[in-house]
Design goal:
By secondary structure, the protein is α/β, with parallel strands linked by helices. It has two domains: about 240 residues, Zn peptidases (Aminopeptidase, 3-Layer(aba) Sandwich); about 150 residues, Alpha-Beta Plaits (2-Layer Sandwich), CATH 3.30.70. Helices cover about 35% and strands about 20% of the residues. It has 14 helices and 17 strands. The strands form five sheets. Strands 1-2-5-3-6-16 form a six-stranded mixed β-sheet, with helices on both faces. A hairpin with a 3-residue loop joins β1 and β2. Bound molecules: zinc ion. Zinc ion (ZN) binds next to loops.
Length: about 450
């Protein structure tokens, strides 16, 4: 449970301008930076407002750093260090948000940036304008106190993370690769704090994500003659599309333990409560398959052991209950484990559907990311800072079952970590992409202190 005792660093950086930091986040939230897959629908003037805010309100970042705007929405700063032979750090964020839902159920208007005694409200307050402002306020603080850093710092903010990021962070990464930059560590959003209930252990747990699952959308289209429903023939476009969905979902992927999950299990082993799980974990190597199927049966852990299959969209051109459709299409979203490469999955799907009268198209494919090292000094620095800042005993590496822009950067460094130092209860975390998104002011201010320490230790 997160309460005041959760934060161990209280009397440090007391000259941090908290009210400015709080106002910054509120002002970021006021910009309606919603991203859409079709970027022509995006209002880039809202992104420009944030760019201008950063340029006007962080004098030290702008004194020591140079900014570049990418594809109208993204911005990255290069704050050159004194010693260019030393590896740089990249701190990532995204400026875009998903559209608000069920606006009548929010306590405050989604783009109000309302500040109350304990919370800041609004879309992006957790995902992830809070981290954007944490990065900016911590770097501003460090530069204002210590001047030019030894190592170069990159602040990279994308504008299309929520819609797969091919114009934002993807382009920034390409620019940095062209410059042949020497990168020591990348940090992006992610990592989770959860109660022991997640793995049924007696400790709360903090996960640093060292990789992420892959992605594949399958589009299934069926066509038929149409006409009156009283004479449907053997099947309609809708029947065929539904048969295809059933065929795919009834042939799930095998469960398996990857190296990261084995490391997670070895870390949590002393705290496991469930007897059956505990016994299995006494000999992970011999019980490999049994542990995988044990975890697969737990609803919240299944995604960690296998490729998931989620039918998400279906549409038909029929305008009435008595009208046969001519065209029906559906999307199934897959999150690929490291054991299933996109090219093999596509072959499997084509084979499964070979006798069903549908057209299959594959979209947005990306394999599971490379896995970052947990033996690096950078990973060790992160874990030691976490122990210093937060009252938590159990820190483990894990895989992100969703996706971030961070996977683009694995070609620049083996040390790409997804960890947000703004840690909130699971209940609050549920407001991400949901109703009434809000962040606690305590967690936000402590996040800034965490990043100040990280920057001071790594870059000065
Ligand atoms: Zn995010």
């Amino acid at each position: 449970m997160i309460n005041k005792d959760f934060y161990k660093i209280k009397d440090k950086y007391n000259d941090l301008d908290k009210s400015k930091a709080i106002n910054d986040l509120s002002n970021f939230i006021k910009c309606k930076t919603i991203s859409y897959i079709d970027q022509t629908k995006m209002d880039f003037s809202e992104f420009t407002k944030i760019h201008s805010y950063i340029i006007d309100n962080y004098p030290y970042i702008n004194k020591y750093g140079k900014y570049n705007i990418i594809n109208k929405g993204s911005i990255y700063y290069e704050i050159e260090g004194k010693d260019l032979n030393k590896p740089a750090i990249i701190l990532m964020g995204h400026l875009d948000v998903v559209p608000p839902i069920e606006e009548d159920k929010w306590d405050y208007e989604p783009f109000s940036g309302e500040i109350t005694e304990k919370y800041i409200y609004g879309r992006g307050s957790l995902d992830m304008k809070n981290i954007d402002c944490t990065i900016l306020n911590s770097i501003e603080y460090s530069l204002s106190h210590f001047g030019k850093p030894d190592k170069t710092i990159y602040i990279c903010f994308g504008h299309d993370e929520e819609t797969l990021g091919k114009k934002g962070q993807w382009e920034i990464k390409n620019k940095l690769r062209e410059k042949n930059v020497n990168i020591g560590m990348v940090i992006d959003e992610g990592g989770t704090y959860s109660k022991g209930t997640k793995y049924n252990i007696s400790k709360d747990i903090l996960e640093i994500q060292v990789g992420e699952k892959g992605y594949l959308d399958i589009k299934i289209e069926g066509t038929s003659e149409g006409g009156h429903s009283s004479n449907p023939g053997k099947s309609t476009a809708l029947t065929n599309v539904c048969n295809a969905i059933t065929k795919i979902t009834s042939n799930p992927f095998e469960s398996n333990l990857d190296d990261t999950l084995i490391k997670t299990i070895n870390n949590i082993k002393p705290y496991i409560i469930d007897e059956e799980f505990k016994q299995l974990c006494d000999d992970v190597e011999s019980n490999h398959d049994k542990i995988a199927s044990y975890l697969d049966k737990k609803l919240n852990l299944g995604p960690y052991v296998k490729t998931t299959i989620a039918p998400t969209m279906i549409s038909s051109d029929s305008k009435g209950a008595n009208v046969l459709p001519k065209e029906v299409s559906a999307i199934i979203n897959l999150r690929l484990s490291s054991f299933n490469k996109a090219k093999d999955v596509k072959e499997k799907i084509k084979d499964l559907l070979k006798d069903i009268d549908v057209k299959v198209t594959f979209l947005n494919e990306i394999d599971a990311s490379q896995i970052s090292s947990i033996d690096s000094n950078e990973y060790k620095l992160l874990t030691s800072l976490i122990k210093e800042h937060f009252n938590i005993d159990c820190i483990v590496p894990s895989i992100s079952i969703g996706g971030t822009d961070c996977c683009f950067y694995t070609e620049l460094t083996p040390n790409c970590y997804r960890f947000s130092p703004i840690i909130n209860d699971e209940e609050l975390a549920k407001t991400i992409h949901g109703v009434n998104e809000h962040v606690t002011i305590d967690s936000y201010i402590n996040g800034i202190k965490f990043y100040i320490d990280l920057i001071n230790k790594y870059c000065f």
